[in-house]
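Hey,
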Amino acid sequence: MKNKIKKMTWKKIEKILKEKRKKKIKGKKKEKEKKEEKYMKIKRRKKKKEERRTAQQQ
């Protein structure tokens, strides 16, 4: 690994690091979206339950 790094120019190293950062950011965005979807599903379930309760009471 060390030999490869010595042969590489700084531009190549920076390019690789930028790609890694982009992948990390994409991964974080996907995680956020998944969490939001879960939250919205839970909200929908609660709404449906409330609607059923109100319908039964009337």
